[in-house]
Design brief:
By secondary structure, the chain is mainly α. Helices cover 83% and strands 0% of the residues. The protein has one domain: Up-down Bundle (Methane Monooxygenase Hydroxylase, Chain G, domain 1). The two termini are 34 Å apart. It has three helices and no strands. The protein is rod-shaped.
Length: 113
């Protein structure tokens, strides 16, 4: 495999990781928000105690996943940014679609993290 093809493959893999972690972070945060809304809708004394306890536990687990995903996103974004800097000056790399996508994702991830 040529060096350019190897670089393109790494850019594509790391870009995919950043995209996936970004989607996961958004989905987990939505889940937390939805569960909090559901918990707020229960009137005190009207809901089953076990149901409220279960929702609180689910919120806690989802919040842990938000933190975990944010950590993984930060790490993946850092790795992508490092790779972009490392290969930026190599011949032919800057003209590839993978590099352009990786550069854009690295900027977006840096701003959001």
């Amino acid at each position: 495999m040529s060096e350019l093809a190897s670089i393109q493959k790494q850019l594509k893999i790391k870009s995919g990781s950043v995209k996936r972690y970004t989607k996961e972070a958004i989905l987990y945060q939505k889940e937390v928000d939805q569960l909090k809304e559901k918990l707020d809708k229960f009137l005190p004394g009207k809901a089953e105690e076990w149901e409220m306890k279960n929702i609180r536990r689910m919120i806690e687990e989802s919040e842990k996943m938000v933190l975990d995903t944010a950590t993984r996103l930060s790490k993946a974004a850092g790795e992508l940014g490092d790779l972009v800097k490392q290969v930026e000056g190599k011949a032919g790399v800057a003209d590839t679609e993978e590099f352009a996508n990786a550069l854009e994702l690295a900027k977006q991830a840096k701003d959001s993290v």
